[in-house]
Write a structure and sequence with these properties.
TIM Barrel, 8-stranded parallel barrel, two-stranded antiparallel sheet, 10 strands, alpha/beta
C-alpha cells in the first residue's frame, strides 16, 4: 500500500468462516502471507461470560458462542506456515497472564517467527474472566505496567532483578531473548486517558484505538506525538493501527496519522472462498 499505510487482518468471524475446522485459520494466514498482507492479528478472551451487555465500547461485536482461539498458540502455528507476514495480538488481555509466563511465551514466539511478533495488549473489561482466572479485576492497569516493565527486564537476557508492587524477582535469566532489537514491540489497545498516554510514551511502539472515528484518532495521534517528544522519543516512530470501516476511508486514515489499516475478516469475507480474492484486493491498494 502506498505512502506508508500498511494492511492488517484481524481474525474474526471464525465460526462462520471455518465452522468445525478451525485449523483452517492457519491456511488463511498462509494465503494472507502469499498475497502480501503486512500483518495478521488475533484477539483474545480466555472465556466469555453471560454479561456481554456490559461491554463498554458499544454493542459486543460477536455472538456469545463465538470461539476464541488462544492468540499466542495460534500465532505460533501461523509462524510455521508463513514467511514474512507480521504476527500480532490485538489485543491480549495481558494481566490475565503472569509476567514470567508472558515474557517467556512472547520471546519464544518471536524467536520461532524470526522476529515477527507485535504484542498488542489491553487491560480487559470482563470481571468474570478475571474472577475465574483467580486474578484481581481491580488494579489491573497498574499490574499491566509492572508486568510489561518486568518483561522488558527479562528480555534483556539477564541475569536480571526487578522489584515492583506486583512483580518481584532477583537474578533471573529468561532465555531465549527476543530476536527483535530492543525487545518485542508493545502496542496498547486503550483509551487515551492521561495515564495511558504516559504508558504508551514510556513503553509503547504504538496505539490501537478502540473506536474508528477518524477525527478522534487524529486528536489522539497529536497527543501521543507530543508525549513521545516529551519522553525524548521520535514522534515519527509512533505506530497507529486502526479499524478500516471501508476501503474508501483509507486516504482519510492516512491523513489522521494511521500507519496500519486493520480489516476485520468476518466483516469483509462471507465464506472461505472469499478469502483469497479479498486478501489480493486489499494487498494491491
Amino acid at each position: 500500500m502506498g505512502e506508508g499505510l500498511r494492511v492488517s487482518i484481524t481474525l474474526s468471524g471464525i465460526s462462520r468462516l471455518f465452522g468445525e475446522s478451525l485449523a483452517g485459520v492457519i491456511d488463511a494466514a498462509a494465503m494472507a502471507d502469499a498475497a502480501g498482507i503486512d500483518q495478521i492479528a488475533v484477539p483474545d478472551h480466555l472465556a466469555i461470560g453471560p454479561r456481554i451487555d456490559r461491554y463498554p465500547y458499544g454493542r459486543f461485536p460477536l455472538p456469545a458462542d463465538e470461539p476464541w482461539l488462544e492468540p499466542l498458540v495460534v500465532l505460533a502455528a501461523m509462524a510455521g506456515a508463513t514467511q514474512r507476514i507480521r504476527l500480532a495480538t490485538s489485543v491480549l488481555v495481558a494481566p490475565l497472564r503472569s509476567a514470567l509466563v508472558l515474557a517467556k511465551t512472547a520471546a519464544t514466539l518471536d524467536v520461532l517467527s524470526r522476529g515477527r511478533l507485535d504484542l498488542g495488549v489491553g487491560v480487559g473489561w470482563q470481571r468474570e474472566e478475571f474472577d475465574a482466572a483467580g486474578v484481581p479485576f481491580e488494579g489491573r492497569a497498574a499490574r499491566l505496567d509492572d508486568q510489561l516493565r518486568a518483561c522488558r527486564a527479562l528480555w534483556s537476557g539477564g541475569p536480571t532483578s526487578f522489584h515492583s508492587p506486583t512483580v518481584r524477582f532477583d537474578d533471573l535469566s529468561c532465555l531465549p531473548r527476543p530476536l527483535q532489537p530492543g525487545g518485542i514491540p508493545i502496542w496498547f489497545g486503550v483509551a487515551l486517558t492521561p495515564r495511558n498516554v504516559e504508558r504508551i510514551a514510556e513503553l509503547g511502539a504504538g496505539w490501537l484505538p478502540i473506536g474508528s472515528d477518524l477525527d478522534e484518532i487524529a486528536r489522539g495521534v497529536s497527543v501521543l506525538r507530543e508525549a513521545f517528544a516529551r519522553a525524548g522519543r521520535d514522534p515519527a516512530t509512533l505506530g497507529v493501527r486502526a479499524h478500516a470501516p471501508a476501503l474508501d476511508a483509507l486516504p482519510r486514515m492516512r491523513e489522521a496519522g494511521v500507519t496500519i489499516a486493520a480489516f476485520a475478516l468476518g466483516r469483509h469475507a462471507r465464506a472461505r472462498a472469499d478469502l483469497r480474492p479479498f486478501f489480493e484486493e486489499i494487498a494491491s491498494l
